[in-house]
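Usage

Read records sequentially. Each one opens with the input sequence:
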Amino acid sequence: MAQRRMFSKKIVETDFFMEMSPTAKLLYFYLNMSADDDGFVGNPKTIKLISGATDDDLKILIAKQFIIPFDSGVIVIKDWKIHNYIRNDRYNETQYLEEKKQLVIAENGTYSKVGIPDVIPTVSTGKDRLGKDRLGKSNNTMSDKSDDVIPYSQIISYLNEKTGRSFRTTEAHKRFIKARWNEDYKLDDFKKVVDNKVADWTGKTINGQPAEKYLQPSTLFGTKFDNYLNQAPMHQEQAQPYDDLGLPF
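and closes with the structure output:
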């Protein structure tokens, strides 16, 4: 097996990848570094322990289809062919030939299992909010939420009503909303986040700038959504200028 591996920015700099927890992203890099020349890892749980990640992080990578699991316990990096090109004279075929037979390679170079559609699944669970990607009880039952059931306009309209802004339902804004909706947050959750942060940030400053400028979809509905949803109510006497609002930058 080669001692060097490459990573494509087309994968690791996407919003979908960046929204994962730091430990899930670290686990992904470790798995890639440990993969054979076909992208297979025979001991993902061992790599999980080495990286300091958790079972939830491994499940997140499976749920978001960054890795594909097999009944044998082996996994394969879905975008391996995008990350790495290995010359024929340096290539060593994987020992996991039975698992390899179950894969097909799409035109863009990604792996998928034979007979299983290549879709981005939702990640949901019966557990309380995790503060990051939420995990499914069964990877076989996960499916992306249709745009038809996501109240984009209601969410943006509520934000505009509470902030006096005029945001539109753009594709960029919809992407943040859809990511949270796929984690099983509902309309009332979005409204509560807006209410919490309007109360929290109104009249405050960050580095000399009005904190209200951060009352926008990319901030409110980003990866700190669960923290904003579950924060303790702010009392009026607590309102004062400060620099660290817990913003995602």
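Summary fields computed downstream for this record:
- The two ends are 38 Å apart (CA to CA).
- The chain has a mean pLDDT of 82.
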